[in-house]
Amino acid sequence: SLPGKDVARVVGILPQSPIAPEGITVGDLVGRGRYPHQGWFRQWSAADDAAVTDALMVTSSLELVERRMEELSGGQQQRVWIAMALAQDPDILLLDEPTTGLDPQARHILWDRLFRLKEQGTTLVLTTHYMDEAEQLCDRLIVVDKGRIMAEGTPASLIREHSSREVLEVRFGSERNA
After folding, report:
1. What is the pLDDT of residue 6?
2. Which helix (H) or strand (E) holds 8?
């Protein structure tokens, strides 16, 4: 418990399959994340708040600010939901498979932002199927299979403990004697 802080301002959430109210614009949705107590349909301008503008820029969504969520592709919607979570500037950020549906460039931009947030003291809790993502962003990992914890530790310790010591050599094409 953090005295004097509203839970909605302390914990930012990116659910795996979020659903936006019909007709809501990108700017209104991201603004809703920034000011949850003001209701879903608060009219919003990206210029109203530097955090909203920054979150939209980081996720390459600023040009979408006036568009309605239902008009966007799946990848665009995912970027907007990430912007909403980032705009909250929370102490704890819960992200359920945040890079699903993102192209490689958007994925790496998000990684960079999350890494910087972590360095600034934000606690990140994320679920992912991408081991490179977990290794890049996490200090501690918990590997879960069918609801059971199978392993936990630092990325380096889990790699050391569970990687094979055998070396597999793979050759492509044919060898020619010179």
Report:
1. 59
2. helix 7-10
Q: Is 34 left (phi over 0), alpha (psi -120 to 50) or beta?
A: alpha
**Strand, helix or coil for residue 161:** helix
Contacts 24+ apart (CB under 8 A), 52-58: 52/27, 52/83, 52/87, 54/86, 54/87, 55/30, 55/82, 55/83, 55/84, 55/86, 55/87, 56/26, 56/27, 56/30, 56/83, 56/87, 58/83, 58/86, 58/109, 58/110, 58/113
d(CA 94, CA 124) in angstroms, rounded, equals 6
* Residue 32 φ/ψ, nearest 5 degrees: -60, -40
CA angle 136, 137, 138 (to 5 degrees): 110
Q: Which amino acid is at 33?
A: G
pTM of the model: 0.73
pLDDT in tens, 66-78: 999 999 998 899 8
One-letter amino acid for residue 27 of the chain: G
